[in-house]
Design goal:
This protein is mainly alpha-helical and 145 residues long. The chain is built from two helices and two strands, in the order αββα. The chain has a single domain, classed as Orthogonal Bundle (Helix Hairpins). Helix 1 runs antiparallel to helix 2. This is Prefoldin subunit 4.
């Protein structure tokens, strides 16, 4: 040993507290079952995002119907023009109000159905996350960006 060099003994217990970087994470082989779970998670994530869009649209439609019912309540009692598809019909305020309320009930039922479906997807995704994070740790990212 030269006079300028310093030799130090390394104690293996000193490395125990160090956090491993992703480069130091052990490589885990991706099995067919793992890939199937990853693919299922991706499909579920796409479905979840589509349901979010559908729910936003339905809620917007519900707000419009609510506004229409409010307008009908403050009306003068004469005939109103009801839009059915691309056509307009002259109907009584009572008929228009009933029509809007039926549509609201239908849309609300659809919103509840999609909400339940979204809940089922979220539950399955949590199950998959638990398994996949348990197997791959930080080397896999299953979070939305």
């Amino acid at each position: 040993m030269s006079t300028t060099g310093v030799m130090r003994e390394v104690n293996p217990s000193q490395d125990k507290g160090k956090a491993k970087t992703p480069d130091e994470a052990p490589d885990v082989e991706v099995r067919k079952e793992d890939q199937e779970m990853i693919n299922e998670f991706g499909r579920l994530n796409n479905q979840y995002l589509e349901l979010d869009e559908d729910l936003a649209y339905l809620k917007e439609q519900l707000e419009k119907l609510d506004d229409a019912v409010t307008e009908l309540m403050v009306g003068v009692g004469g005939p109103v023009r009801l839009s059915l598809g691309e056509a307009f019909m002259d109907v009584s305020e009572d008929y228009a109000t009933e029509h809007c309320e039926r549509k609201q009930e239908q849309l609300q039922a659809k919103v509840e159905e999609l909400g339940r479906e979204k809940g089922k997807i979220a539950t399955r995704q949590m199950e998959l996350k638990k398994v996949l994070y348990g197997r791959f740790g930080s080397s896999i990212n299953l979070e939305n960006s």
